[in-house]
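Record 1 of the preview.
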Amino acid sequence: MATLLDGRSLAAALRQELKTKVAELNFTPRLGVILVGQDPASHLYVRLKEQAAQEVGLAVEKILLPTETDFLTIKEKIETFNQRPDIHAILIQLPLPRHLDENEVINVMDPNKDADGFHPRNLQRFLASQPAVTPGVTLGIVKLIESAGQKLSGKKAVLVVNSQEFAQPLVKLLNDRLVQTEVWADGIKSNIKQADIIIVARGRPNTITSVNIKDGAIVIDVGTNKLDQGLVGDVGTEALSERPIYLTPVPGGVGPMTVAMLLWNVYYLASHQLASGSNVPRN
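->
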């Protein structure tokens, strides 16, 4: 029987810890959110993030823009958040409408306010082991892996992904923990049974269905796919649920942890700005 790595419970504990930290501040960290378009999933994700932020004592200010909004309008909104000392972190909800270049939009952000850690300057600093925000989804995944209670040093990990940008920070954090890591961008290979840790982020249901996975493996399912039967991940859980492995559920695995780490990033950015004097807190 698979052991579920409960992201909801772990995220709740992290939020409670963060709530205590936020209460010790003499100001309220504020997250500025920009949401473009009417995508139902994006609106749901923003509501969940807003609720979680309020739970721990963070403030959220949203700017909602119609789908047809052009780049210059979005740029103006982001720059307003950049300049406001009471906005300590910025979140641009992805994906953006197709006519917008996500990299171009993200580059407008002040990297010192980048809550997701997606700004190229932050990614460069992070990969170079310099102080920088860690992408929330990356840190959330690693904390889920660690929650299995296994010694990570010397283990082998395989990342089955469709994005090198997604994979790079994960490889960095796993290598820091002495985990030998391979990135597979072309799907499953025959030697997957050698992997102690498998992280799947392809955006395709049933990417992994085979029971040809070693006992004790840690399987992290990052996928979210909306089907008629509801939300499912990239891992065929029916094939793996009876195996003696560790497995994240969908929903309830990576998603809650990503939100929790985003909130910690807001706290980190606000605290750093206060310590450096770059922002004067104003409630």
